[in-house]
Amino acid sequence: MSDTERSTMVPEVNPRITAYVESGCYVCQKYFANASSLRTHLRVFHSTELPARQAGRSRPHNVKYVWRSKKQPHRRTLMGCPSCWFYCPLSFTRMSIHVQECHMDPDHEGSEDPIDEDESYFDDENFLHASVDSTASIYAAMESLTGKFSSLFK
User: Fold this and answer.
1) Which member of 36, 78, 93, 146 lies 3.0 to 4.6 Å from 87 by CB, making a disulfide possible if both were Cys?
2) Is the same domain home to 101 and 146?
3) Where's the C2H2-type domain (predicted)?
């Protein structure tokens, strides 16, 4: 098989990671179905009033992640702010700091950029960073092994 034929067999690697954004209470560490439920919980049980996100808008497009619902398969779970589009690795402490600094501090604008977390934080992501060349070499090795096994069964 030629290199040209082999390269056409290599699937395109999508560099974006599928992710689900969890709504978790940073005070009592309970999870909720959506941001609205979490805001209600914070108001009723923790006397914390947070503003709602703008109605009718979904999470903005991201070059690193493809957003999924909880029922769809996803590779990463992040924690999202119920009041803005901020997200971070699952950390109640980090979310508490974000809410205090961005939504409780009267001198602050009201949102902050998502945390661009260190990829080493996630153990299962190593394979996503493989280059197309290494993927092609994996397919070549698999083809070689397939040839060896098929010769055993002739």
Assistant:
1) 78
2) no
3) 23-51
What residues are paired with 78 via a beta bridge?
21, 89
User: Closest Cα partner for 88 from 108, 44, 61, 118?
Assistant: 118
103: which DSSP letter? I
Q: Encoding tokens for residue 130?
A: 């493989």
**pLDDT-flagged residues of the chain (< 50):** 120-121, 123-133
- What single-letter DSSP state applies at residue 66? E
For 110, the domain range is 17-124
Is pTM beyond 0.70 here?
no
**Residues 76, 35 within the same domain:** yes
- Count CB-CB contacts under 10 A for residue 103: 20
Can you give the pLDDT at residue 3?
55
- Specify the DSSP element, H or E, that contains 141: helix 132-152
Where do the H-state alpha helices sit in 2-131? Answer: 3-9, 35-46, 92-99
Could you read off the pLDDT of 105-127 as tens digits, one per residue?
A: 777 666 667 776 655 445 444 33
The amino acid sitting at 78 is: L
